[in-house]
């Protein structure tokens, strides 16, 4: 993609395991955000990390940002079946006025 | 606190017809974004509007697509003379502040357009 990538495209794990998703982008950014989308629904904001931050936590979520590598990762610890969804990273370009979304990772948590 | 409201949730049109999708942002939000999502893909930016102004329409196809956000009423995404390739989910998002330098976007549930 000309804008960025997410990997893996799909991830299947057992309940209780950790899930890690990665995101890469190609521009300078203000912030990077992660969203969740359940099948057939809208996107829900999970967490935002600013370009001057390296790590952020929210409940079972941990996000890291490496601006030198233009990459971010989302870790979901102790996954639950209810975490099954698509996860998208999105970044706000420096001096930009919109979010650009990655292609997403489909996470399936088996109970 | 009503969230972002989109309607219709599902819309079926025949080729050549017009599709109108409506979006009411969250209360207090004056910035609206439209995104398109094809099956199994991410969201593609289409247009960013403020009340009575189009700020960025760099993602809008040059023909058949238009958007508005009038002083009163919802934002409208209009697709004229629809073709099968327009079949997608169209999402509206709103924000209380200019750009996305500091904030998150609040999304509606989407309008799913099917063109027969």
Task: Characterise this structure.
The complex is a heterodimer of chains A (111) and B (116). Chain A has 111 residues and is mainly β. Helix content of chain A is 0%, strand content 60%. In chain A, the strands form two sheets. In chain A, strands 2, 4, 5, 9, 10 and 11 form a six-stranded mixed β-sheet that branches. In chain A, strands 1-3-8-7-6 form a five-stranded antiparallel β-sheet, with no helix packed on it. The mean pLDDT of chain A is 93. Chain B is mainly β. Chain B has no helices and eleven strands. In chain B, the strands form two sheets. In chain B, strands 2, 4, 5, 6, 9, 10 and 11 form a seven-stranded mixed β-sheet that branches. The termini of chain B are far apart. The mean pLDDT of chain B is 92. The interface between A and B is medium-sized, with 23 and 26 residues.
> Strand fraction band of chain B?
over 45%
How far apart, in Å, are the first and last alpha carbons of chain B?
36 Å
Terminal residue distance of chain A: 34 Å
Low-confidence stretches of chain B: none
Q: How does the helix and strand content of chain A classify structurally?
A: mainly beta
Which sheet architecture does the biggest sheet of chain A show?
Answer: 6 strands, mixed
Low-confidence stretches of chain A: none
Described by strand count, sense and barrel closure, the largest sheet of chain B is: 7 strands, mixed
Radius of gyration of chain B: 13 Å
Structural class from helices and strands of chain B? mainly beta
Oligomeric state of this protein:
heterodimer
Order of helices and strands of chain B: EEEEEEEEEEE
Overall mean pLDDT score of chain B?
92
Mean pLDDT of chain A: 93
What is the count of β-strands of chain B? 11
- SSE string of chain A, helices as H and strands as E: EEEEEEEEEEE
Which chains share the greatest interface?
A-B, 23 and 26 residues
Helix content of chain B: under 10%
In percent, how helical is the residue content of chain A? under 10%
Helical run tally of chain B: 0
The backbone outline of chain B, from C-alpha atoms, is globular
């Amino acid at each position: 993609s000309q804008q960025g990538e997410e990997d893996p495209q799909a991830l299947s794990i057992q309940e209780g395991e950790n899930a890690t998703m990665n995101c890469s982008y190609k521009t300078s950014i203000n912030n990077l955000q992660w969203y969740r989308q359940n099948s057939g629904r809208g996107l829900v904001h999970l967490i935002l990390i600013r370009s001057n931050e390296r790590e952020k936590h929210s409940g079972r979520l941990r996000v890291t940002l490496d601006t030198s590598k233009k990459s971010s990762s989302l870790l979901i610890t102790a996954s639950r079946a209810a975490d099954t969804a698509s996860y998208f990273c999105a970044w706000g370009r420096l001096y930009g006025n919109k979010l650009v979304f990655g292609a997403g990772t489909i996470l399936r948590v088996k109970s | 606190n009503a969230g972002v409201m989109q309607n219709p949730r599902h819309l079926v049109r025949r080729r050549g017809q017009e599709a109108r999708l409506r979006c009411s942002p969250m209360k207090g939000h004056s910035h609206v974004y439209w995104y398109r999502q094809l099956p199994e893909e991410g969201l593609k930016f289409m247009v960013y509007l403020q009340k009575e102004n189009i700020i960025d329409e760099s993602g809008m196809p040059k023909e058949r697509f238009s958007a508005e956000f009038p002083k009163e009423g919802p934002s409208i995404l209009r697709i004229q003379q629809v073709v099968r390739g327009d079949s997608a989910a169209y999402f509206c998002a709103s924000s209380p502040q200019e750009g996305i330098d500091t904030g998150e976007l609040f999304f509606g549930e989407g309008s799913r357009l099917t063109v027969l």
